[in-house]
Amino acid sequence: MSSPEPTVRPERSGGRAPAGPVVAVTGAASGVGLLLALRLAESDQVKKVVAIDERRGDVPGAQWAVLDVRDPAIAERLRGVDVVVHLALDLDLESDPKARSAFNVRGTQTVLTAAAAAGVRRVVLCTSAMVYGAHADNDVPLAEDAPLRATAEASFVGDLLEIERLGKRAPRAHPGLNVTILRPAVLVGGTDTALTRYFESPRLLVVGGSRPCWQFCHVEDLVTALEHAALEKVDGEMAVGCDGWLEQEEVEELSGIRRMELPPAVALGAASRLHRLGLTPSPAGDLAYTMHPWVVSGSRLHESGWRPEWTNEEVLAVLLEEVSGRNSVVGRRLGRKDAATLGAAGATVALVGTAAMVRRARRRRGV
């Protein structure tokens, strides 16, 4: 698509142009990208903001480039840019998985290559602390240099691991290009993920013998951490999240939602069958992140002077308010009729209903 004429950024007080880097933000028309672009556009530490997306958003003072991040023409739009923050990712649970992965991986690869060709000195990528993997033997908390032991069996994690691989390879392929990677904990604030949907259930599913730990990241904290990285105050890979974590019992007490405890074979088997039959968007691998700890220290950002403004307790309260009125079972968003049934009959009916859905789907498919 063609780009509209650049918007002229108004001068700061005193008529002086601000010092600092020229920062490009991909995915700037919505979500985290929009929030970051707005913040950078108001910063006296940023010289100019180049906003990139497939559609134009509302960021006063930004220079817009309207195009697909997979288009190699993006290299021309990055001429004169110092730092690129790449946030144009498809993380919609309802997207076609193959198309989503193609967009995420190809987009990241194109942005990294274009940034190197344009002489950009740093690219900031945002993945997730999920790349560490959720395992029973994980340290609590994990050091930020802990090995990435995730597998591609959970939502988006395969994409995120490939993005990390591309990010780590880029400086070797393009000397002079630096890559910073931020890995937020469970992101809350206008988000819809398998992990936020966990709190839409009438009961909190707990797999027998597991040890869940919860660490959140409010979107406002992620935005300030991304700004910190865009201003080149940190380098390398680092985690973003609230200080500390909550045990499952604390989550249940704070939320007032009781648990439904199931044997591992039952929980994992049901989740696997439902996803295989196309009845839920979440693969069985998502359950691991509600079973085993994957909380991180966040020490690298702390040592650089950044601190979160939100606590885990505060972010959980925000999450519960956001999901109020929604109902999900094993990541499947339910309609009002289903939700009313679950509210009246409780978690046992939800489990029986899951088995019934599997049987109906098999009959339709002749399995």
Keyphrases for this structure?
367 residues; alpha/beta; 7-stranded parallel β-sheet; 12 helices; 15 strands; 37% helix; 16% strand; disordered N terminus
Describe the overall structure.
The chain is of the alpha/beta class. Helix content is 37%, strand content 16%. It has 12 helices and 15 strands. The strands form 5 sheets. Strands 3-2-1-4-5-6-11 form a 7-stranded parallel beta sheet, with helices on both faces. A two-stranded parallel sheet has the order 7-10. A two-stranded parallel sheet has the order 8-13. The chain is globular and about 55 Å long. The model is unreliable at 1-16, 336-353 and 355-359 (pLDDT under 50).
Summarize it:
The protein is an alpha/beta fold.
Estimated structural class = alpha/beta
List segments where confidence is low: pLDDT < 50 over at least 5 consecutive residues: 1-16, 336-353, 355-359
Helix percent band: 25-40%
Q: Could you give a short account of the major beta sheet?
A: 7 strands, parallel
Mean pLDDT: 87
Strand order of the largest sheet: 3-2-1-4-5-6-11
- What is the count of β-strands? 15
